[in-house]
């Protein structure tokens, strides 16, 4: 416990009154002692009448899973330990030291509601990982308001922040796959592929080259062979987890934007009948999950991606791409999620992607920083802003040169702002699959 503001004000007024009585009125010391004695008795009585920490229980929210970049509402309740019999806590102030990676209010008010006091707090997750809250400090006023009762209550709540698969759970990826499969690209996915799909009756307007004459003779009617794009391709998601990927864009590190897009592509690949694997690297290879199919493979893919830690070391693209090339025994689609600063730092990246592209189909995914484009649209009012706009334009130009060079090498380049990466990446994958480039 600690003295409240009311007690400090009362003590200050009594001190001034005591000084005035002694100096100006020459009052006896007994009067001064009486005033201080009354204040001390009131403070002691207030402490004795106010229920202590053990008379209350803090109900904390249960452990829950939260998507990175999203917010969750947590409800806290301070109630009497003996329900309906014990004293009510009244209004109280709560304080939480949120772990790094969670963004929430440092303090909030518990409002009396029914049997106890409640508060709902909104917390946003900015990092992946496991975040225990630990304890909650509660400050209550005494009955007379002369003392502040401060107590720390243990809180077993643990927030598990995982990659954001909202695009998958909401059905957005399934809708996009269905649109591509039954829309303008349907003729590429079915009818012009190299894998046999089914036999169907030949009707006017169909290509006569699709007629299967042997089966037509057996059935006594014209039967056509329907083909489709080949399945069971290998797709490897190669995630760069170096220090450049820790830069925050739109409130999240680049690596989290990349993981979200990679998982969306993994779901699309598994739904399309392909085998999807995961590869993570920084200064050296860290993780390799062989391509597998089925929904159980996606669960493992998501679990391994959630376990990737944030690293502050420079990426070695030469070692990473060489190691990945040795791991791959058959032609597959390699999706490289990486980034670069300028043409000089990107030289090794381009060279190693070019080597990998000789034997496999490579797609390069990078995140465009909206801040660079904002500098170009901003009205400059001084020389500092002019210099910033020129520097941003130079970085954007160098970035475009590297991406154009990759495109000329035959690499599929996906460069978009964080909100548009997933849709463009899935569309690029479906286009590659429909053209049977793998």
TrEMBL record:
Residues 199-371 form the DUF58 domain. InterPro entries: DUF58 (IPR002881), vWFA_dom_sf (IPR036465). It holds the Pfam family DUF58. This is DUF58 domain-containing protein. It comes from Jiella pacifica.
